[in-house]
Structure formats: C-alpha cells, structure tokens
Amino acid sequence: MSKRFVKASMNQPLVVSGAGTAPFFKVTVFEQEHFQGKSQELTTECCNIQDRSFQHIGSLRVESGAWVGYEHHDFQGQQFILERGEYPHWDAYSGSLGYHVERLMSLRPIYCAAHETSRMMIFENENFMDRSVEVCDDYPSLQAMGWCGTQVGSMHVQCGAFVCYEFPGYRGQQYIMECERNSGDYPHWKTWGSHSQTPQIQSIRRVQH
C-alpha cells in the first residue's frame, strides 16, 4: 500500500532567484558558550575541531547554508541540525534531547538541501518493505497525518534532506537523512547514525538551506 502525505497549501513555493548558483556555506565556531573565546570561520567540513586547536565547540553562528553538528569527532554520536542562525548554548541545538550534549566536536555542510523540492519515501519495515508513504513537507506528527504506529523501518531520500525526530513536535534524537549519502538509502534504523538505538520516528521536516 502506498500513500502520499500532502499538506494543505499553507506554504506557497518560494521564487528561486539565481538558479544554478552553487550555495555558499559558512559557520563561525567559538570555543566557549555565548560566542566567547577562540573563534574560527569554516566553509567546509571539519572532522575534528581539536585539529584546529580547539578543545570543543561551545557556541556557533551559522551564516550560510545548513550544517550537521556531531557530539564526537569523525561525525559520530548524536546529530544536530544547524540551520542559519545563532546557537549561543548547547540547548539551542540539542533542544529536548533526553540527555545533555554540551559540546560539538565535528560538523559538515548539507550540500543537497533543497527545501522546496525535498522528497522521501518512508517504509513500515526494514529493507523498504511493506506499507510506504511519500513525504514531501513538514510533519510535526506522522500519526496525525495518517501513519500507523510510532516506528519507521527504512527510508529512501529521493531529493533534498530531512530531519527525522524521535518524538512528535520535532523533539528527541535527530537523524539527518540526505539524498547524497548512501545514495539516499537507509534500509535499517542502524544506518541512520552511530547514535541510532531505536526505529522510533514521530515527526519529520525538511532541512532549511
């Protein structure tokens, strides 16, 4: 059974200007909270902030593009979506996560973010089996939109990038799903990230770029 979630047209498509221009990525990281201490601008991925003579990242400003921050070096541990704006303290990016992640050790840009055209299939079971639904919008509650149960077995990102959350209302652990990683295929919840411990997904939204 296949079904498509289509939300009422509350969000009209944006007019895209400068089509064909590659996006620019820029983030300024600070060693201490509230934009204090040592700072540095990044425009490409950093697999270990300690390689740049930082102890860790205590706060940051995303000036352009969308990024993913990680709890540990080499893009391991909890994932956090970092869209344009300021993150003066750990709770600005970790939100309602079950435990505190007070520092980031690595981060990278999301090159494939395409907010208005993002599209993904979610499947009831592992390996893209059984009931499926096409996701092409923001869904604060999958159950309210017609998805049965609280779990998702596998996903295939056809275009763009999404953030999947453990609980409704974009709360809990975050999992960044991208069409350019693993060819967009996430056949098992263990492929969502090194921190994945459950197939529970209850809200999904598109990455803002």
TrEMBL record:
* Molecular function GO labels: structural constituent of eye lens
Query: Where in this chain does the record put each Beta/gamma crystallin 'Greek key' domain?
Result: 25-64, 65-111
Q: Which UniProt keywords apply?
A: Eye lens protein, Repeat
Q: Does the keyword Cell wall biogenesis/degradation apply?
A: no
Biological process GO annotation list?
lens development in camera-type eye; visual perception
Entry-linked PROSITE patterns: CRYSTALLIN_BETA_GAMMA
- Tell me which Pfam families the record gives: Crystall
Could you say which protein family the record assigns here? Belongs to the beta/gamma-crystallin family.
Role according to the record: Crystallins are the dominant structural components of the vertebrate eye lens.
User: What is the name attached to this protein's record?
Assistant: Crystallin, beta A1, like 2
User: What species is this protein from?
Assistant: Astyanax mexicanus (Blind cave fish)
Question: What broad taxonomic lineage does this protein's source fall under?
Answer: Eukaryota, Metazoa, Chordata, Craniata, Vertebrata
